[in-house]
């Protein structure tokens, strides 16, 4: 009479412990990959804001430079339908030198909740 045991029956497979370890490794790897992807998207959005805001601030500075010095005053507004989420503010202040004005241009993205402003400072002689 031949008695066959299950240990030597030739069935092979993964144990529950091996499956659990593989799942833990897979879960850890996926968390790292998704976190990296999220950080990459966040950095791309920040770079897009910095680029757009700096170009918009520079265009506002160009408008100010094209205006005669005595007509440059503090003001605010938006960039119209082309950039609906962006607004600008110009602050003109006096300096220690009578003929030198400090002009600060601030561009803000209203949609972003943090790190949503870009500031550009210009000094201009106002000789009358």
Q: Could you walk me through the main structural features you see in this protein, from its secondary elements to its overall organization?
A:
- A four-stranded antiparallel beta sheet has the order 1-2-3-4.
- The protein has 128 residues and is of the alpha+beta class.
- The chain has a single domain (17-125), classed as Pantoate--beta-alanine Ligase, Chain: A,domain 2.
- A hairpin with a 7-residue loop joins strand 3 and strand 4 (117-125).
- The chain has one helix at residues 16-66; strands spanning 75-78, 86-94, 100-109, 117-125.
- The protein is 40% helix and 25% strand.
> Per the principal axes of the C-alpha atoms, what is the gross shape?
rod-shaped
How many structural domains in the coordinates?
Answer: 1
Helices and strands: which structural class? alpha+beta
Supply the number of helical segments.
1
Largest sheet: 4 strands, antiparallel
Estimated helix fraction: 25-40%
**First CA to last CA: what distance?**
119 Å
**CATH third-level topology:** Pantoate--beta-alanine Ligase, Chain: A,domain 2
Overall CATH class: Alpha Beta
Strand order of the largest sheet: 1-2-3-4
Q: Could you give the count of β-strands?
A: 4
Order of helices and strands: HEEEE
Average pLDDT, all residues: 89
The CATH architecture can be named as 2-Layer Sandwich
């Amino acid at each position: 009479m031949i008695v066959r045991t299950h240990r030597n029956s030739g069935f092979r497979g993964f144990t529950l412990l091996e499956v659990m370890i593989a799942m833990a490794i897979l879960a850890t790897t996926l968390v790292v990959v998704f976190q990296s992807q999220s950080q990459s998207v966040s950095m791309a959005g920040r770079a897009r804001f910095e680029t757009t805001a700096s170009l918009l601030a520079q265009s506002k500075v160009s408008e100010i430079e094209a205006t005669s010095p005595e007509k440059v005053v503090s003001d605010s507004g938006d960039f119209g339908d082309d950039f609906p989420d962006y607004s600008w503010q110009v602050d003109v202040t006096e300096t220690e030198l009578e003929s030198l004005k400090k002009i600060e241009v601030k561009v803000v993205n209203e949609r972003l909740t943090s790190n949503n402003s870009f500031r550009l400072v210009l000094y201009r002689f106002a000789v009358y």
